[in-house]
Amino acid sequence: DIQMTQSPSSVSASVGDRVTITCRASQGISSWLAWYQQKPGKAPKLLIYAASSLQSGVPSRFSGSGSGTDFTLTISSLQPEDFATYYCQQANSFPPSVTFGGGTKVEIK
Amino acid sequence: EVQLVESGGGLVKPGGSLRLSCAASGFTFSSYSMNWVRQAPGKGLEWVSSISSSSSYIYYADSVKGRFTISRDNAKNSLYLQMNSLRAEDTAVYYCARDLTSQPWLVSNFDYWGQGTLVTVSS
Question: What is the C-alpha to C-alpha distance for residues B25 and B13, in angstroms, rounded to an integer?
Fold first, then answer.
């Protein structure tokens, strides 16, 4: 199975900061990577798919990049509503065996 | 508006069974692959199972293979998860989620999620 390693596991940041979260796959997954945001008690929300495509309705301050094994989610200017936990997810393998990263909690500094 | 509403969760003893349902509305259910994803209390996300639009392709995580069965009824716009031989480690919130892909043999990313239903396995 493909393992997904996210870093850091948590980050403290202030409103207006630029925040970068990384995700590394244990083997190449081309661009088959998505990012989700989850707030406490709520379902995850898709932010980015295909490594860099912004899901409809998601603010443009969110961006994704990378291919192969190394990927990045960037929040260009952190807003109060962005404090949440972020997960990466790969969907490259066949037969499918979807895996998520361990999550990165973005906290208020 | 796309809506996914899970039901059927609850408290069950180890070794017991439970059937989860997910009622879909606001989109053409029969055109999309669907998934179950779970989250243990305070933990991360774990994909459980996927079923293609016509039920031709079904996939399971190794952790549930042989114990869980995914199914769907396109006439009723509903997704199901039959869970047997439940273990303490199956305790989690179970979400149904719509798949983004148009390729029925693939599992990709999940663009709409329900609110989840809690399954607790305990004696």
Answer: 32
